[in-house]
Amino acid sequence: MKFVTSIRKLLGHGQLNATGIIVHATAGASGQSSVEWLSQIGFGYHYIIERNGDIIVGVPKEQRAYHAGVSRGWDGKNCNSYTIGIAFANMDDGKDPITKQQLDALVELVDALKLKVPTLKWISTHKWVSPGRKTDPVLWTPAVEYRGLKVWK
Length: 153
Fold this sequence. Notes:
The chain is of the alpha/beta class. Helix content is 21%, strand content 22%. It has three helices and ten strands.
């Protein structure tokens, strides 16, 4: 697992006590281009997985990131207040594939986060916590369990 530092710093918004993870797709050309855009509008992810599997570290995992917007999950409304946001650098158009390197990096990252954040119990997608508003990631749908985390739909 290779972590890279983003060109710009993504800002956190207060303390985070994470109980789960939400997986996204950036709908951008690359992780770095997404960081550029997100830093301008005050949003962010904790991690962005580039197509080659490199992981961009964004908002520190101990801080809230504005990644889910209007949302509802296992702990109620405002998923930003209890989730870590991980995004695939992907156009999310149903054509741009999520690469094997990205999927492998997600496995490693989730396993590492479970060790560092023992309160993690859940995983979901943006399309499930913001139904009717978001579709990402179109090409990634976990089953009932993923790496020991319960899947919330």
